[in-house]
Each structure stands twice: as structure tokens, then as C-alpha cells.
Amino acid sequence: MYPTDRPRRLRTTPALRRLVSETDVRPRHLVLPVFVAEGLDGPKPITSMPGVVQHTRETLRKAAAEAASVGLGGIMLFGVPSRHDATGTGAVDPEGILNVGLREVREEVGDALPVMADTCLDEFTDHGHCGVLAPDGSVDNDATLEVYAEMAVAQADAGAHVVAPSGMMDGQVGRIRSALDAAGHVDTAILAYSAKYASAFYGPFREAVDSQLKGDRRTYQQDPANAREALRETTLDLAEGADMVMVKPAMAYLDVLRSVAEISDVPVAAYQVSGEYAMISAAAERGWIDRDRTILESVTGIRRAGADIVLTYWATELATRLDR
Ligand code: PBG
Fold it and tell me: What global pTM score does this model have?
């Protein structure tokens, strides 16, 4: 008996495979995360993320111009200040490195490329937590919301089209929305890190932003064991006015991404984080996997699982290999 059902028929030529392809990756789907550091003479390589650097203000401008020219969906800025303090004042200071970077990137790209800002305090605090601390050393949710509100307004003032609260404080989206509106920034969008896990895959990022953290973020980021919680977090963020939601990391959380995409009525993003980048880079460097194919396959998988938007450190490079 020969099989009558032959799925292989549709795989016989490249053109047939192209015809029936369900998922595509285009430059517009990709957002490039970038780091801008204060007080550097030149771009500083991040050893655990080969090919990624801490930018100076000048090289950041160039990276932004390049991102726009290859047609990326957006650019996401992280700041690396030279001074840290208990409440992260560098985050709200219009002359703080992140706000300066946002202003200059916006000047460079105008409205051609959506400019996004990480709205979180960990890069700016001397203890490295994503919020301000209560006297007992715990992260004070409600006090942190007030700083996030101020930070988001400073970022919108600096020209961010999108602010992206990533600190997993309860109520952060609602508090930021009301602060933006009160400041007249009704059109500044919020990309909410709705389901952000306490993940070991952020390892290299700690080097990327010179993180000061000792300890962990498990009292505010999600437990990797939990999926339902991600839906609760997403539902709350949507109710508070999130314009887009995000799942992070991506590859170890594709099931979460799929279920968030199923309930979300706004665009869904996923973040291919520093450890995912490092893992693929390291294996490719050893010749153990094909670098280019693995990069595209990993991003295709994230899209297939339900991401409209993928944040990836390969965004610019990958875009040059893709159809517009
Ligand atoms: C927090 C933040 C982190 C990342 C993005 N935003 C680190 C953390 O929560 O520990 C990680 C990004 C990456 O690993 O690529 N502001």
C-alpha cells in the first residue's frame, strides 16, 4: 500500500515551499535593542555578546541611521550611566544618558523609525534593582511607580515614540499612562513587558549595562514555572492601557508567547534576550551550528509562536538578508 496523503508534494521546489510558507520575517518585524553609555571614548565591545557594543552618542546615531535605512520596525534604547544612586536619578534627568540618547536618535531618524525607551531603573540604581527600595530592603512597588511616571514623561519629552516599562511593578502601565496623558503626551505609546520572567538568559545583559545587582529579581519577575500568571499579567496590562505587550525571554517561553498572542487584542512582541544571542553566537563560533540559518530559524520560530514584533540584537544584520 502506497500512502495517498503526501505532504511532501508541497515541498518539492523552492517556489512551492515559498507559496505555502505560513510565516515570514521582514525587517519591519524587527526591533534593535541598543546600549548607549556615558563617558566612553569609543564603542566598547560586550565580550559575552560578540558583535554588540556599548555605544557612544556618536556611534548610537550611526546605528540608528543604519536601522532606519534597512527598514527596521524600531530601535529600543538602554542607558548605561557612569553614576548610580539609590533612586536612579539619572533616569529622570533630561541630561541623563538615556534621555540624551533618545533626543539625539530622534533628531537623527525623525519619524522614519519608531524610537523606544526602556523604562526601568536597574541601569540607574546603585543596588541594581528595577525599583526603589523600602527601608527593609524590599523593592517598594508603589514608590517605584512614581519614579517610573516621571521617567516615562522625561523619555517622551526627549522624543520617544514608545516607552517600555520592563520592571514588572504592579500597576506600572496605568500609572505611566496617566502621567503621560497629564503631561500632554497622549500619543506616546506603551509597550508593556507583561510577562517577564526571572531568567538566567539575561546573564550577558548584566555585562552590557554594567549591572550593580547582587541577588535576584524573583520578588517581581515571574517564576519560569508559571504560564497562567502570564495571562493574568497581560490582562491587567491591557486593562491599564498597554498599546503593545511583550513576552520575555523568547525561546524558552514560546508556549507563553502563544497563549498571550491568543488573548491579546494588541500587537504582541517577544524579546530574544542576551543569553539567547550568546548561546547561538558561541555555538556558531565553534562551528557547531550554522550561524545564519540558526539566527533566521530562531526568529522565525518566535514569529510562528505568535510574535508580531521581535526584539533581537541581530535585527540590523538580519534585515539586510531579508525581503522588505
Ligand atoms: C531590565 C532589563 C533586563 C533586560 C532588559 N531589560 C534585565 C533584567 O531584567 O534582569 C534583559 C535583556 C537581555 O538579556 O537581553 N531593565
Answer: 0.97
